[in-house]
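--- STAGE predict ---
source: upstream dedup step, 1 unique chain passed
mode: sequence only
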Amino acid sequence: MKHKQIILIIQLLLFYSIGIGQKVEKVTVSNQDPYNLYAYEKIDTSTLFYLKLVPKIKPIGVLVILPAGGDMVEDVMKQMTLHKLAVEKGFLVIFPSINWGTVKLEEELKFLNIIFKQIIKQYKVPKDKFILGGLSGGGMVSLNYAERAIRDKDSSFIIPKAIFGLDPPLDYVTLYYQCKRDVERNFAEAAANEGKWFMELCKIEFGGTPEEVPAQYIKYSIYSHHEKDGGNSKYLINMPLLIYTEPAIEWQIKNRHRDLYDLNCTDISAMINLLQMQGNKNADIVVTHDKGIRLDGIKHPHSWSIMDSKQCLDWVLKQLK
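--- STAGE serialize ---
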C-alpha cells in the first residue's frame, strides 16, 4: 500500500472517530522535526502538524488540547468528549503534534506560536480567546506557555485566557528525585528505565544535578516548592487554572511502590494552595478517585479519563464571559 493511501485511510478513520458530520482537518506545519517534538508515529516521524475541528459558526474561541508523552493525537480524541462538546459550543479545537520534545520546552513554544499565528490569520479569533490544556507533559507545555507569555512577552504570540491540566509534573527538582527513587527501588522496570533516562537528560540539559545547578532547575520549572514565591508559578497569579489529579495511593504502592512524596499531586496541591493565598481566586484543583483508565482498558490514575469533559468545558466557557 502506498504512503498516500495510508495517510488517506488514517484521515478517514479520524473523520469517523469523532462522529459523522464533524470533519477533522490535518494541517502540516513542517516536514522536519529536529527536536523530536512528536515521537512514536508509526508512519511518519518527521512531520509536524495539528488537527483542527472547525465549528459551523464563527469561533467563539480556540481550545488547544495537548497530548501526554508518547500519546498519538488520534488516540487522545478517543479518550474524551471535550473536543466534541467544545465544537458544538462554537470553539475551534486544535490538537498540536507535541508528545515528546525538550526539557526546557522552548521549541514547543515556538511551534505553538506558528500554529496560533495561522489560526488567528485564518479565522480572526482574538488573541485573548485561547484556552490551553493537556495531560502530563501536555499540561506542562500549556502552563509553561502561559508563564512565559506573561514573563517574557516577546516570546509568545498570545497570552492564554485560561489553562487546564491533568496531573502535570511541575517542579523539575521534585521530578528528578522521584526518578532517582524509582531507580533505587528498581521495582517497576519501565519506571526505573525512564528514571535513568530522565536524570541523565536533566544533567545534560541543565548542566548538572539539582544540587550542582539549582538555579537552572528553578528557571525551567513551572513551580518550585522550595522557593517562597513558588518560582515561575508567581506569573500565574492572575491566570485561571483548573488542574485534575488522581493520587490513587493504593494503586501506586501496589504497582510502583511509590508513596505520596513521589506523586504529582503533592506539587499540584501546593501550587494551587500558594496561588490562592497569593490572591488567585480562580485557581482550582479537582481530586478524583478511581476514575483513571487507559485507552487499552488498563487501570491507571495518570490518564485522560480523570477529567470530566462536560465539567471542564463548563469551566472553560465561564472563563470567556
